[in-house]
Each structure stands twice: as C-alpha cells, then as structure tokens.
Amino acid sequence: MTNYIEKFKLKNKKAIVCGGLGLIGKEVSIALSQAGAKVLILDNNESAWKEFKEKNKELDLDFVKFDITDISNLGKNISKVYKDFGPIDILINTAYPRTKDWGNKLEDIKAESWQKNVDMLMNSYCLITKEIAELMKKDKIKGSIINFGSVHGIVGPDFGVYSGTDMTSPAAYSAIKGGIINFSRYAASYYGKYQIRVNCLCPGGIFDNQDKTFVANYEERTPLKRMGNPEEIASAALFLASDASSYITGTTFMVDGGWTCI
Ligand SMILES: NC(=O)c1ccc[n+]([C@@H]2O[C@H](COP(=O)([O-])OP(=O)(O)OC[C@H]3O[C@@H](n4cnc5c(N)ncnc54)[C@H](O)[C@@H]3O)[C@@H](O)[C@H]2O)c1
To answer: How far, in Å, is the centroid of ligand 1 from the Cα of 241?
Structure first.
C-alpha cells in the first residue's frame, strides 16, 4: 500500500529558499524544514536572519547573504552556493526586490526604473532557475523548482480594491509576473526529460496589516471573503516541493481564495 503521508516528507532533501526571510519566504522555509529538508535561505537581509534563527532554533535552517539583483555575477554566485551546500533538490524563488518608486502610477514610471525592476524581479528568477536546473541535470537530481508568480501575472488588477486608498498595483508587476509564469512553463518543458519539475505558485493578496479600506474591498471581491495568510502559501509550496506532486510540472498553481475564478 502506498504511504501517502511519506510522499509529503522531505527527508534527506536540500532546499534553497531565495527570499526566505520575507512574509511568505519565512513560512515556506519553516514548512520545508518541518518536513525534514535542510534549508538554506538566500536573502540580502542579514539582520532579519538573526531574529528568525533565534525564534526557530529547533529547525535545520542556514543562511547565506545573497543579492539576486547582481545579475552579471548571478550564475557564478548561485553555482558557488550549490557547490558549498548542495546538491540541491528544491529551489524556491520568492525574493521580492523592487525600486524605490515601486507603486507609482503607470504614467509616472521612467524607462530606467521599468528596466531595473524587470531585471531584479523577473530576469533574476529566470537566471537562477536556469543555473540550478543545469546543476541538477549534471548531478542527475530529480529536482523541484518553484517560482513565485501572482494573481497579477494571470489577470489584470481590479483597481476597485484600491479605491479610497493610495495603494495601487504596479504595471511592471503584471509584466514581470506574467513573464515568470510563462518562463516557468518553458523551463518545465525544457527540463522535463531530466525529471526536473518547474512550477509557478501564484498567491492572491496576503494579509499584512494593509490599509483597512483596501482589506475590506479585497475581502468583498474574493470568493472566500478574506485575504490569505503565509501558512496557506507555505502548504502549497510544500506540496509542490515534495514527491506528492511528482507528476505535476509546468503548472500555474493558484492559491488565491478564488480571486481568478471570477
Ligand atoms: N505578499 C503578497 O500578498 C503576495 C501576493 C502575490 C504574490 N506574492 C509574491 O510572493 C513573493 C514573496 O512576497 P513577500 O510578500 O513574501 O515579499 P517580502 O517583501 O515580504 O519578502 C521578500 C524577501 O526578499 C528579500 N529580498 C529583497 N531583495 C532581495 C535581493 N536583492 N536579494 C535577495 N533577497 C532579497 C527580502 O529581504 C525579503 O526577505 C514575491 O515574488 C511576491 O511577488 C506576494
């Protein structure tokens, strides 16, 4: 008889979580570690690491300070991490670098800012995916790569949820997340014959003490009538990372309370 619970376990697996100290990344790191993986967090926020490690002493978590926006050295830097810590079975791309003018209206965005965000948030995910997949291929690892998309990579923003607030959804975000989603399909197709899986996990809005008007608008618009929480995203990441999803690749996995079904 198949032991289904065992399929969700990550015993003897090694995982890299890029952006593992963020709102979602922390919970993903905890979930993978609880399931038995050795987790290496790559993040540029060293002070957040000290606090996170202190709170989670019992978990097998490690950290390397890493900047995913150093595009010209990304291949070299990520392959050094792989060699020092690896071989790697699981890669999660959930870092969220953005420029200072992130959130400005479309008409106010300068070309250089647009290009920078595409480089920092989309090109970095694609290049890290390629680099790790090549190393997995060389080491014959049946790896799982999970790139973070968003509902905004699937549908345009419903600007109604921002009414009565000074919030908006940046235009570049839609372009970037759409790009990450389709690159993940490309990589899934490209690396499938090596049994390397590449999936895109797309959260809806996660509650983080946002403006009360926004939260109320967002809840009203969402079929489940609430925002999500990081733990709900982490469970989905654990599923996609584990052998429980061994026949799933190239998928765009929505964890959005139904946002994109209407
Ligand atoms: N929070 C949401 O509501 C939501 C919704 C949909 C999709 N997402 C996606 O989920 C992912 C994570 O979002 P989040 O809300 O946890 O973000 P966050 O801002 O809370 O965390 C991002 C993490 O990335 C790290 N980081 C930033 N720049 C970096 C760099 N140059 N190099 C390495 N690490 C860097 C930060 O230090 C931080 O730990 C993103 O891809 C985001 O687009 C989030």
So the answer is: 19
Q: Which residues line ligand 1 (CB under 6 A)?
A: 19, 21-25, 43-45, 66-69, 94-97, 148, 150, 203, 205-206
Of ligand 1's listed atoms, the one at least distance from the Cα of 20 is: 39
| pLDDT digits (tens), the chain, 262 positions | 999 999 999 999 999 999 999 999 999 999 999 999 999 999 999 999 999 999 999 999 999 999 999 999 999 999 999 999 989 999 999 999 999 999 999 999 999 999 999 999 999 999 999 999 999 999 999 999 999 999 999 999 999 999 999 999 999 999 999 999 999 999 999 999 999 999 999 999 999 999 999 999 999 999 999 999 999 999 999 999 999 999 999 999 999 999 999 9
User: Does 4 qualify as catalytic in the annotation?
Assistant: no
- What is the DSSP annotation of 39-78? EEEEES-HHHHHHHHHHTTTS-EEEEE--TT-GGGHHHHH
- Amino acid at residue number 116: K
List the CATH code of the domain at 4-261: 3.40.50.720
